[in-house]
């Protein structure tokens, strides 16, 4: 009779973590940055239909890297949670921290389960406040832990290198144009340190804009507005954007 193959619990969890990390690293990176009037989401995404960034609720945005079908299921679950909580209690009771806790429980349960593979996803849940001090950004790795981020965060692909680049250059109170340009510069750096060009049509950009008069602060930036933000200085472009709205 053969002896059953034994793997220690520590080794099994390490293997699952390595599997998830490799799956996430195969995806394109994305970054989330605070700027003077809110939070901007920037990622390289050639698809016009399969979005990395989405609105969850009035002031809450969602970003994800990894396997699309897995993070899309999580996004839909987050929307349902937010709608139900806002309807049952009050819209102000729907918060990024509460949503991050729900996602953490889901990811943690799946990661520790021996019956299914871990999700190959890394999430960012962000909420824009009335002032920059009220902004919240939470990063959720594959194992369901929650990391409270400030200023900037990168996930997917070569996120570690991008995060280091952003930490050295990101500043509080940046204009939207300056934050967007910094994000594109960070994303365009290859692992060997060389710089490549990412055309505007391959970028997916969205913001949580605290200055919007609507209750819903999420807005996608596309077309000519995105082109102007990438080409002109921050002050003049933001003035033009406010006139358009």
In short:
This protein has 245 residues and is of the alpha+beta class.
Helix content: 40-55%
Low-confidence stretches: 234-245
Q: What is the general shape?
A: globular
Number of strands: 10
Mean pLDDT: 89
Instruction: Please list the strands of the largest sheet in the order they lie side by side.
Output: 8-1-2-9-10
Helices and strands, in order, run as HEEEEHHEEEEHHEEHH
DSSP helical segment count: 7
Strand content: 15-25%
Give a verbal description of the structure.
- The chain has 245 residues and is an alpha+beta fold.
- It has seven helices and ten strands.
- The protein has helices at 9-25, 68-88, 96-112, 159-169, 176-187, 223-231, 234-244; strands spanning 30-35, 38-44, 53-57, 60-66, 121-127, 136-140, 147-149, 152-155, 203-209, 218-221.
- A five-stranded antiparallel β-sheet has the order 8-1-2-9-10. Strands 3-4-5-6-7 form a five-stranded antiparallel β-sheet.
- Strand 6 (136-140) and strand 7 form a beta hairpin.
- The chain is globular and about 70 Å long.
- The relative contact order is 0.18.
- Mean pLDDT is 89; it is low at 234-245.
- It is found in: Cytoplasm.
């Amino acid at each position: 009779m053969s002896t059953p193959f034994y793997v220690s619990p520590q080794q099994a969890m390490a293997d699952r973590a390595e599997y998830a990390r490799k799956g996430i690293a195969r995806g394109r990176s994305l970054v989330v940055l605070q700027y003077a009037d809110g939070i901007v989401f920037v990622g390289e995404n050639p698809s016009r239909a399969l979005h990395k960034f989405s609105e969850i609720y009035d002031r809450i945005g969602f970003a994800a890297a990894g396997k699309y079908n897995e993070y899309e299921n999580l996004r839909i679950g987050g929307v349902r949670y937010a709608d139900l909580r806002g309807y049952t209690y009050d819209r102000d009771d729907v918060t990024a921290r509460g949503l991050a806790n729900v996602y953490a429980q889901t990811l943690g349960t799946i990661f520790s389960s021996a019956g299914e593979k871990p999700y190959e996803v890394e999430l960012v849940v962000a909420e824009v406040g009335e002032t920059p001090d009220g902004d919240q950004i939470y990063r959720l790795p594959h194992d369901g832990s929650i990391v409270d981020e400030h200023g900037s965060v990168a996930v997917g692909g070569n996120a570690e290198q991008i995060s280091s680049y952003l930490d050295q250059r990101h500043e509080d109170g940046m204009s939207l144009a300056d934050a967007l340009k910094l994000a594109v510069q960070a994303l365009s750096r290859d692992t060997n340190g060389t710089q490549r060009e990412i055309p505007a049509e391959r970028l997916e950009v969205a913001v949580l804009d605290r200055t919007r008069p609507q209750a819903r602060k999420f807005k996608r930036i596309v077309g000519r507005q995105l082109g102007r933000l990438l080409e002109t200085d921050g002050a003049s472009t933001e003035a033009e954007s406010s006139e358009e709205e």
